[in-house]
Amino acid sequence: MKLFILYQTDNWKSRASRVCFGVFVTRTKAIDSAKWQELYNHNSEVVVVEVTLNLFEEV
């Protein structure tokens, strides 16, 4: 099963600046939530990472 993690990060998309905003079942729901929460602005970027459930790996 695939899950999608929604992060807000700086313009350079560095891992140190990531803030997690939720885990979603579909990419569309993650993007809609980012728009609804107004996470898009000129100082930040939104990153949606696809992960597989029950798989041990670095995110």
From TrEMBL:
> What is the protein named?
Uncharacterized protein
Highest taxon of the source?
Bacteria
Which organism was this protein described from?
A: Flavobacterium restrictum
